[in-house]
Amino acid sequence: MSSNTANKTWRSTCPVACTLDIVGDKWTLLIVRDLFAGKKTYGEFQKAPEKIPTNILADRLKRLQEHGIVSKHPYQERPLRYEYLLTPKGRELGAVLKAMVKWGEKHVPGSKAMRSLGR
User: Fold this and answer.
1) Residues 25-70: tens digit of each pLDDT
2) Less packed terminus of the chain by CB within 10 Å, N or C?
């Protein structure tokens, strides 16, 4: 468990509530989805069809890193640019995303899974 997660005072002891405190906004799991799809850079995340605002993208990437879900690595020196990768903890969210895909395909007409998240 990352230090941020370990030292946090949670609003509840319920695992669902605690997990939602980390990934429960409307953007965070879309970033995780994109990481599973092979996106790694800030620019690649910005190209997602949902058009995440840049300030929110920066905040969510920072939060994912603080909670040990992604790691950040420089891939270019000048200008300094980073790539983001799922950690083992982050990869465990794959099962959550697959369950959401399955539910969405069943109950949300017109929804369609990305190949990387399909069953």
Assistant:
1) 999 999 999 999 999 999 999 999 999 999 999 999 999 999 999 9
2) C
Which pTM does this prediction carry? 0.88
- CA 82 to CA 61: how far, in whole Å? 11
Cβ(73)–Cβ(83) below 8 Å? yes
The domain made up of 12-117 is a member of CATH 3.40.30.10: no
Residue closest to 19 by CA, chosen among 71, 118, 112, 97 = 97
Q: Which residue has the tokens 């465990």?
A: 92
